[in-house]
Amino acid sequence: MHIQIRSMKPEEIDLALDWAAAEGWNPGLQDAVPFRAADPEGFLIGRIDTTPVAIISAVRYAETFGFIGFYIVHPDWRGQGHGWAIWQAAMARLAGRTIGLDGVPAQQDNYRRSGFELAYRQVRYQGHGLAQGVSSDPELVDLHQVPPAELAACDRASFPTAREAFLHAWIRQPRTRALGLLDQGRLVGYGVRRACRQGFKIGPLLAATPAGAERLFTALRADVACEEPVFLDIPAGHPAAVALVQRHGWQPVFETARMYAGPAPTLDPARIYGVTSFELG
């Protein structure tokens, strides 16, 4: 049977979130909106007749960079070549760009065969809310008050290209808290907490200093109930980020591998205390 592959329609993207949740990946409740804002045709679906059998995202962020995620074949259709077919379609869609993905370590060898190389490990830590109410720190401001160009410039520490449309939608998701950290009126860090299928995820979390990361990390948990789980994905090779979560008693629950095909982007790793949680390949 021949698989037919095309871009998802807006009403079909929730299927990707449902399949990701079934795999245990815990996507954000409204993640479809910012990804569509970045690239309206970036989610692909493969069907046999009218039955969806495979999905993948291949989001173009610029002429030089794209990202693959949500790479899932329905369990009933695995082992029949449909995953390879939709993978090739995604790679073709991002041809000519550096391509990033987050994958489980067990799949690294498979990705290497498609030209991907390990950049760094990411570890997901789990903690909980603080139930302390909203922070009164005067240097922590709602990101909606920050000029978009200033936010985009700060974001470039963690992402290889401008993604203004994505950020605009990312910080405006329902049940999301997005905070900027100011130093003499200048944005020096920011963090976002969004609602997920289970609890909340923080990401990105960017700061110029460990003390700044601590302030954002604490404020983003302050108004979350103590029984609610909160997750943060950190680069495993960042000692200050590891120290931050360990100091608060958070525990590692999952690991991924950030990999790139093409020239690895130049980022500012010292500022990255938490990454955006793209769903896995």
Q: Averaged pLDDT, please?
A: 93
Number of strands: 13
Which residue ranges are poorly predicted, with pLDDT under 50 across at least 5 consecutive positions?
none
Task: Sum up the overall morphology in one term.
Answer: globular
Helix segment tally? 8
Strand content: 25-35%
Radius of gyration: 18 Å
| Structural class assignment | alpha+beta
Order of helices and strands: EHHEEEHEHEEHHEEEHEHEE
Terminal residue distance: 24 Å
Major pleated sheet: 13 strands, mixed
Which percent range fits the helix content?
A: 25-40%
Describe the overall structure.
With 281 residues, this protein is an alpha+beta fold. The chain is 25% helix and 35% strand. The chain contains eight helices and 13 strands. It has helices at 13-22, 32-38, 82-93, 108-112, 148-155, 164-170, 210-222, 239-247, and strands at residues 4-7, 43-48, 51-60, 65-73, 98-103, 116-128, 140-142, 177-183, 186-195, 200-207, 229-235, 251-261, 272-274. Strands 1, 2, 3, 4, 5, 6, 7, 8, 9, 10, 11, 12 and 13 form a 13-stranded mixed sheet that branches. Strand 4, helix 3 (82-93) and strand 5 form a beta-alpha-beta unit. Helix 2 (32-38) runs antiparallel to helix 6 (164-170). The protein is globular, with a radius of gyration of 18 Å.
